[in-house]
Design goal:
Blueprint: E1 10-13, H1 19-30, E2 34-39, H2 42-56, E3 60-64, H3 70-83, E4 89-92, H4 107-134, E5 138-143, H5 146-150, H6 156-176, E6 181-188, H7 201-209, H8 219-230, E7 241-244
Parallel strand pairs: 1-2, 1-4, 2-3, 4-5, 5-6, 6-7
Helix pairs in contact: 1-2, 1-8, 3-4, 4-6
Length: 250
């Protein structure tokens, strides 16, 4: 087994209080990283930081701010800059799912979904890239979705927001490569999180039946791939979108 060591690496994870974000926080803590965990619920972030610090002996800082708002992101990175002048890894994980058939889509759904899932990636990457360039490079990992690659009924807004994340990833990888900042994405399929548990039992089983490996993915499956993209094992990898979907067909 290859052991990834991220000791002394500074890592910011957005949407870290639950699901894939929390799994990423645990994987990075196990690898020895110095963590900055973002979310909107400061109590959950503080509790997770305390848990990870106790279990893995790492430094962990809660960094609550709303990634969907440009001014909040600016203030959040100002807080980060007070804590550290260095950033090695950014995981743009924060996201929301608000499905609706196109005839039922509201302007508020569009605005909220794109602000959280898409605009946040640009806002956070903008500030993170500056910090990474100060110290010779880094890795940005964006969490997209299989829906952003192939689409799905009732998910025009969500799928559009995640397709945009893929486009941002590909463009930033070209723009930032010369400064040794790598930009990649993971595209999870059907993952066992609070988000997927909102489905009806019938719809849930329908999704499971579409997975070639015959099982739902776990948040840690995604986190392991994010960890690989953040580490020196992928030092020559940029501009890639890695599916973590068990062979799911939609």
């Amino acid at each position: 087994m290859i052991e990834i060591n991220l000791t002394d690496k500074h890592v910011l994870i957005t949407g870290a209080s639950r699901g894939i974000g929390a799994a990423c926080a645990k994987s990075f803590a196990a690898a020895g990283a110095i963590l900055y965990l973002n979310g909107r619920d400061s109590d959950k972030l503080n509790a997770l930081c305390a848990e990870l610090s106790e279990e893995y002996g790492v430094n962990c800082h809660a960094l609550p701010f709303d990634v969907s708002k440009a001014d909040d992101v600016k203030q959040g990175f100002q807080q980060l800059f007070k804590l550290t002048k260095k950033l090695d890894v950014l995981v743009n994980n924060a996201g929301i799912l608000d499905d609706a058939l196109v005839g039922m889509v509201t302007p508020q759904q569009v605005e909220n979904t794109f602000a959280t899932n898409t605009h946040s990636v640009i806002y956070c990457s903008q500030y993170a890239a500056r910090l990474m360039q100060r110290s010779g490079g880094g890795s940005i990992v964006n969490v997209a979705s299989i829906i952003g690659r192939v689409g799905n009924v009732g998910q025009a807004v969500y799928g559009g927001s995640k397709a945009a994340v893929i486009g941002i990833t590909l463009s930033l990888s070209k723009e930032l490569a010369a400064t040794n900042v790598r930009v990649n994405a993971v595209a999870p399929g059907f993952i066992d999180t609070d988000m997927t548990k909102q489905l009806t039992p019938e719809k849930y089983q329908e999704r499971v039946n579409s997975i070639a490996m015959g099982r739902v993915g776990t948040a840690s499956n995604v986190a392991d791939t994010v960890l690989f993209l953040a580490s020196d094992l992928s030092v020559y990898v940029t501009g890639q979108v890695i599916g973590v979907d068990g062979g799911m067909l939609i």
